[in-house]
Every structure is written in C-alpha cells, then in structure tokens.
Amino acid sequence: MRKRLILLLIYATFAANLLSEPLLLENALKEMGYAPELQWEPFLQTGVIYDRGHFISFYTGEKDEYGVFLVDGYYIIETPLPYVEKGIIKFPEAFVASVEKAISEEMENDIGLFRVAAIIIDPGHGGKDTGAIGTPIIDGKKTTIQEKGIALTVSKDLYVQLVKAFPDKQILMTRNDDSTISLEKRVSFANAVNLAQNEAIIFVAVHCNAAPYKANARGYEVWYLPPDVRRSLINKSTFDGPAEVIPILNSMKEEEFTIESRLLASTILKRFDEVIGKSSPSRGIKEEEWYVVKKANMPSVLVELGFITNASDARLLTDSTYVKNYSNALFEGISDFVAIYEQPGGFSVFLDKDL
Ligand SMILES: [Zn+2]
Q: What is the DSSP string of 96-138?
C-alpha cells in the first residue's frame, strides 16, 4: 500500500512540474483536445500515458536519444525518447506528435475502447488432486470437505452469473467437472484464447487455503503477480527492432498486467469484505508467483476462500449459502473491474484513488 502512495506522490509532483514546462506532453495533448493521465514508475524509469481507453507505454533515455514506445501494448513506434532533466521528465516535440498521431489513429481505426472479451475461471485442483482436505465437526459428526469441490461449486455458480450478465463475452472454465487437469494445461488453455487488439482477457483461479500445522490460521485472501517478475511477452519473433529494447518493452508490458491484476484483486477483495468480512477475516491482497498466475499472459488473480484446515472456516464452507456468498462476491468484484476497465478513460479513475 505504501508503494502506491509514493507513486501517486511522484505523479502529483510530476504533473505540477508539467504545468510550467514548454515541452509538456499534457499541455500539448490538451491543446489537441486530449486529457491524458500519466503514471510514472521512477525505479524502472518507465511510464504509461492513458487516454480514453488507449495507452502509451514509454521509457526515458538521454536527451536526443532515439528509442521506441508501445501503443496499446501492441504497436511499436520509433521516436526521440523522453528524458529526465533536473528531476523533471521532458517530452520532445516529436515524441508528443507521435503519441498524438498514434492515439488518433487508434481511434480512427475504430479499434475503440478496451473491452474485456473473455473471462477464464480456473477452479483449483480436481480429480486425483483433491487440494486441501478438512474434517470439521458438523452437528457432532465429523465431515470431510475437499478444496477441489468447493472451488468447483463456487466457479460453476460464478460462471452462470457471468454468462447471464455478459452475453457478449466468452466465459470459460478450465474444468467444469471433477477431472484432473495439469497446471500447464490450464495456462495454455488461457493463453490460447484469440483476442482482437483492443481486447483483454482476465484469469481468476479459485482455491481454498490450508495450514495443517497452524489450525488457527483463517480468513480469505486475493493474490496477484508481483511487479518484479518479468516474463518474455515480447520476443524476437514478435519484434524485429533492436534486441536490447526487448527487455524494456517487456517490463512496460509487465507493468500494465500488474496494474490490471492489482485492480482486479482490489475489486474482488472489496466485495469479499462486504459479504464475507463479518464471518471470516480478510488477509488482504498478496503477491506471489503462483504458477497459473505467473504463466498466464493476462491480468490474473488467485483467490483463497478461507482455510479448510481451520475449524470455523471449514464449518462455514459446508454451508451452501455461505459458499454462494463467495461466488456472488466474485461476480460483483469481476463486474466492478470490467466496468472500470471498459469505461471511457480506462484506468484514470483507478489512478486517482489509492487502493
Ligand atoms: Zn489450492
């Protein structure tokens, strides 16, 4: 949470400085009728300019140095790079002109606003792999509950709600019965979905937690991929420019997925807090390299619906109304994300608020 605040603080200073500079991207674009939002990552020296559902990812270089920026995460445009001078980012006129041209072309091509085209629900485990097992005492009787079953029940109900609410989107499940599916298969399934250039896909893995040696551990949590994990999203086969630029492009792309994953995690957690928070505690948003989350090239989160190894959580998880509350909350959280993602201006609203 602290990291977000620092980022916003720097962003505020940056925006203030822009107002008194001649080579100001914000002013230049405003004159052309644009009102972009900027986000700057000082550590990586990369930034993102958001404008009505489109975005430019850039990095800085030396004054007069040439490099590239990414348009909507796909098109690569060569340009003089923005540079930092006395702590202020300056945008060469040619850069501003290229950005303006790129954004207006994106709009003219009627690529339109970004939309979530597909939602993949990944019920954890299945078949031979039961996931965590709990044995709560219900009405004086020892009962057995399995993670794979709860994950499937919640996922199926979530699926039905999403299909009804979003008939224009592909709603997919990595499994819809008690079958064994490898992690590799789940990920390749997700990565194989065809998308147009303005379309995004989101991935939600559903699990329950277990802490066999810490029976008092309980509560729900939402995980997303940490920003320092870098994947090769852009490689020599998709980019024929200078090889040394590839890692920079990848870090820009990665940052986009991180921002989106974190937004998705926060919209889901907020709904969990509303619906589940009275019965089981929130353990918040976490970052880790879960396999399915790491390998899926898309905004992705993993939810843990309480601890199967905790007597109170496990008892709650045998209650179908309580389990339904989870799928309802997931549905609301995903819908909130879609609404933010698809609104004109995209993430500008998100950037104005702390999570
Ligand atoms: Zn699991």
A: HHHHHHHHHHHHHTT--S-EEEEEEEEE--BTTB---EE--EE
Q: Which CATH superfamily is domain 115-343 in?
A: Zn-dependent exopeptidases (3.40.630.40)
Residue 268 CB partners (closer than 8 Å, separation 6+): 204, 222, 301, 303, 329, 330, 333, 334, 337
The rounded Å distance from CA 142 to ligand 1 centre is 22
What Å distances lie between residue 66 and 41, 83, 159, CA to CA? 20, 11, 47
Cα 129 to ligand 1 centre (Å): 9
Q: How many angstroms is it from 291 CA to the middle of ligand 1?
A: 11
- Cα of 183 from ligand 1 centre, angstroms: 11
pLDDT tens-digit profile of 324-335? 999 999 999 999
What gap in Å lies between CA 39 and CA 59, rounded to an integer? Answer: 11
CA of 288 to the centre of ligand 1 (A): 14
Task: Find the 232 Cα to ligand 1 centroid distance in Å.
Answer: 26
Q: For residue range 125-172, what is the model confidence (pLDDT) as tens digits?
A: 999 999 999 988 888 899 999 999 999 999 999 999 999 999 999 999
Between the CA of 125 and the centroid of ligand 1 the distance, in Å, is 6
DSSP-derived secondary structure letter, 241: S
Q: Structural domain boundaries of the chain?
A: 2-108, 115-343
CA of 38 to the centre of ligand 1 (A): 37
Cβ atoms 128, 213 nearer than 8 A = no
pTM for the predicted model, two decimal places: 0.69
Q: Architecture of domain 2-108 in CATH?
A: 2-Layer Sandwich (3.30)
| Distance of CA 238 from the midpoint of ligand 1 (Å) | 34
